[in-house]
Write a structure and sequence with these properties.
The protein is mainly alpha-helical. It is 61% helix and 0% strand.
Length: 67
């Protein structure tokens, strides 16, 4: 992996961890959390050259979580 790609992936991972920590501590509500996660996913997909599905197609957060 080249240095630029490593840096980018590291930045995305750091950002993801920060967003999750802020959500867990109550610093953001679920809507803001979803928006930020979708933004991270969009940036990753653009970086690796994948088509980015619309938010309506992403059911990750609307699906019930099994217990």
């Amino acid at each position: 992996m080249d240095i630029g790609k490593e840096w980018f992936m590291g930045e995305l991972l750091d950002t993801f961890c920060m967003v999750v920590d802020e959500y867990r501590t109550g610093m953001m509500d679920e809507k803001v959390f979803q928006d930020r996660i979708f933004t991270i996913a969009d940036r990753y997909a653009r970086h690796v050259g994948k088509d980015v599905p619309s938010k309506e197609q992403m059911t990750l957060f609307s699906s019930p979580v099994p217990e």
